[in-house]
Structures are given as C-alpha cells and as structure tokens.
Design a protein that fits this description.
Strand content: under 5%
Shape: globular
Oligomer: single chain
Helix content: 55-70%
Order of helices and strands: HHEHHHHHEEHHHH
Strand order of the largest sheet: 1-3-2
Radius of gyration: 18 Å
Number of strands: 3
Number of helices: 11
Distance between the termini: 51 Å
Length: 229
C-alpha cells in the first residue's frame, strides 16, 4: 500500500515538473494553440457542416491598448497587483454559486484571475471538477513565478475564446468588426470583453441588450484599468 502511495505521489510530482517545463517554454516561445483549443477543435469537427478553428498569433504591440484595458476592466481589475490567485474573489464566487444553486438558478461566477484563465486555456479542459480547479491554481502560481504580467496578458489575449471556434484577439477583431486587432476602438474592445463570460452564447448577437449594457459598464471602467509595463 505504501509503495502505491509513493508511486502515486511520484507520478503527480513528475506531472507538475512536466507542466512547469511547458510554462517555461511558453514564457519564451509562442504557442501554436492550446489544450482548450484542441478540445474544441474535436467538437467543432464533428458538427455538420464542420467548423474550423480561427486563430492567428498576434504580438502584444499589435493588439489595441483598448482591448487590453477592456479585458482587465472586465475580468481582473487587480491583474497587475495580485500573485496569480485572488482568494477573496474565489470565496465570493463560491458563496454566490451556492445561493444560485439553492434558488434553483444556473447562473455561475468563476472568481478566476486572467492568470488562472490562461492556465486553464493553455493546459486544461473546461471540466468543472475540484481536481481541475486545483491544478489550475498550481499552474497559475507557476506562470506568475516565471512570466511577466505583460507576457501573461499577451498569451491570454491570444488564446482566449471569443466565440464558436474563434480564438484570440486577431481572429475576434476580424470576425466581429472586419479590422485587425491593432485597430479596435474603445467601443469595439468593450463589447468583445463583454462576451467573454460566455462567448458562444453572447457572441451570437453583439447588439443584444446584455452585450450593450455590459459593454457600457466596461467602457466606464477602462480609464482606471492599469496595463502591465
């Protein structure tokens, strides 16, 4: 029994070393995709007709500052201050979700930072399990340990999902507004950030009441959003 426990611990530790090696790699080299992208590619390929992944890596300098500020304002206002995980935000999300479940509603809050979302997108799946969430937290700390905030934001903006098969700032800008990511306006950037909680649903109608209202809220917050140096 002790041998099995020791073997299990060794396997877990080796897997963490493997993940950390990839984190180090991505701190220097750009990814050609992500685990979440590959998971979605399989799902989209099975549709009739099949849908292709839209993705094009875009350097940090070629992404509109408006989109950078919009994403921070919408998803992680303290991005430049925290160490990868906001425990108080997680506790608040937990309590909120419990209330929603008790009331029989399906609304959920994640409480995840941009770093946690990047960890999930690059390495994990969309499964809502405690094991997956725990691994996400570990990877988030790995990312923060070796990457600058600027690099984290660059990676996030390039791999986050913006709709069915649409990944990254460039693909989103071209799909929704027929412009390059560098030319996104404040209005456009705020609306793109507004759909992030559920892009496959909200991205179907960028003129919906929710997207417009959420976009206005994000626009109002953008001036106070702090970009990494």
């Amino acid at each position: 029994m002790l041998d099995l426990v020791a073997l299990l611990i060794a396997v877990i530790l080796l897997y963490q070393v493997y993940l950390f090696a990839w984190v180090l790699w991505y701190s220097v080299f750009n990814p050609g995709g992500s685990a979440y992208m590959r998971e979605q590619a399989d799902r989209l390929a099975a549709l009739d007709p099949p849908v292709s992944i839209q993705y094009e890596w875009t350097p940090y300098e070629a992404i509109s500052p408006a989109l950078k500020k919009a994403v921070i304002a919408a998803e992680d206002a303290r991005f430049t201050e925290h160490g990868g995980v906001e425990w108080e935000a997680i506790r608040k999300a937990w309590r909120y979700n419990e209330r929603q479940e008790d009331a029989g509603r399906n609304r959920r809050r994640g409480g995840s930072t941009l770093t946690q979302q990047l960890a999930k997108n690059l390495f994990l799946s969309a499964d809502r399990t405690y094991i997956r969430k725990g691994q996400e937290l570990v990877i988030a700390y790995m990312i923060e340990a070796v990457m600058s905030k600027r690099r984290i934001l660059e990676l996030y903006l390039n791999v986050v999902e913006y709709g069915n098969g649409i990944f990254g700032a460039q693909a989103a800008a071209r799909h929704y507004y027929k412009v390059d990511a560098a030319r996104l306006s404040t209005y456009q950037a705020a609306r793109l950030a507004a759909i992030l909680p559920n892009p496959r649903v909200y991205g179907k109608n960028m003129q919906s009441r929710y997207v417009q209202s959420r976009g206005r809220t994000i626009s109002a917050r953008m001036p106070s959003a702090v970009l990494p140096e």
